[in-house]
Amino acid sequence: MPASHEAGSGGPLDGIRVLDLSSVVMGPLATQILGDLGADVITVETRDGDINRIMGSGPYPGLSGVSLNLLRNKRNISLDIAHPDGRAALLRVAAGCDVFVTNLRPGSVGRLRLRYPDIASIRPDVIYCQAHGFPSDSPQADAPAFDDIIQAACGVPDVLRRAGGRPGLMPTLLADKVSGLVLAYSITAALFHRARTGEGQKVEVPMADAMLAFLLVEHGSGAISRPAAGPAGYQRILTPLRGALQTADGWIAVQPHRAAHWSALLRAAGHDDLVGDPRLSSRALWREPGFGYATLSRVLATKTTAQWLAFCADAGIPAAAAPGLDDLIDALPEDEHPDAGWYKVIPPPTRFSATPASVRRPAPLAGQHTGEVLAEAGLTEEQITRLAEAGVLTGDPAGPGRQAPAG
What we know:
There is one protein chain. The protein is α/β, with parallel strands linked by helices. About 40% of the residues lie in helices and about 10% in strands. It has 17 helices and eleven strands. It has helices at about 25-35, 65-70, 85-95, 105-110, 115-120, 145-155, 155-160, 175-195, 205-220, 235-240, 260-270, 285, 290-300, 305-315, 325-330, 370-375, 380-390; strands spanning about 15-20, 40-45, 75-80, 100, 125-130, 200-205, 245, 250-255, 320, 335, 340-345. A six-stranded parallel sheet has the order 3-2-1-4-5-6, sandwiched between helices. The chain has a three-stranded antiparallel sheet with strand order 7-8-9, with helices on one face. β1, α1 and β2 (about 40-45) form a beta-alpha-beta unit. It is elongated.
């Protein structure tokens, strides 16, 4: 299925090699994106394996539905980096990598002697990217941080409270995924700078900063100005009725933003008495969101989803049906994993005309490429065998095309 990495990816990051010491979702998502864009991504796992391998159900031991896409386009080595020989092997690999990514906490990075100066001493032009929960110069620098913690710290519960609900959390790994996207674009920006100047650098992405910047784009609202011009929170988004609305047979989202849109919808639903109501003029959902969404809910209940989609298409009104997760997954393309069998591929979301993103490698098993990667870094077969015998390597230390040590 996937092409060999020696053949080149043809993607915009073809020729870039990434060493990935991250786990769970934030870092692995960022490096999945880099891999989709053509980079040769080498992930490093501990003896216990990455948590994403057991997140939810999956078709094969160590390959969950999450990891089948999150770990694609990567090679994998399983290495005890706390062992002196494991650290030395890691540094041999790092010397050949353009990018070094970790989401270990600053204290852990320090104890392992894998800080920026340590990696830059063997690869001066490296892009060293450290992602963790809170800024390294804050009192919480070494605090453990998962998605729930960052969502709470950055105001998500208050946004949901303001929207008429309880102060809960978004039912998605919002902080992990937002931070992963920030991590990916920060790395590509640093690579661009290096291409122009030859200069490597350290890049820090605190999840708390990434999420705060994301959330306050609209929810800073009038409170951003000084003196404040209004309350925090973007009122159209916070209106409890905003969302997919029920039709006669399903669910749909419709967003009329012109007076003519409202007039057409009202007449089609038999609500001629509301045509011309000043509360339903242009941008009504921004000016009178409560009344606007309540009226829209009454209007949409009068016809089927298909009828409204056809009507809105003819009238130029933005609209979309709201399918279920199963429907969306069923529509994805399929590919065959050599161990796990057929699975649904989440396609790369960016389309390049000259350097297309692609899925070239299936998600690896833990330690699948240990021998291959260490041999590329210059270790001999005898050295790799000794590391395996010392318990520094886990998984299959032989790697493709090599013989595993006996015993």
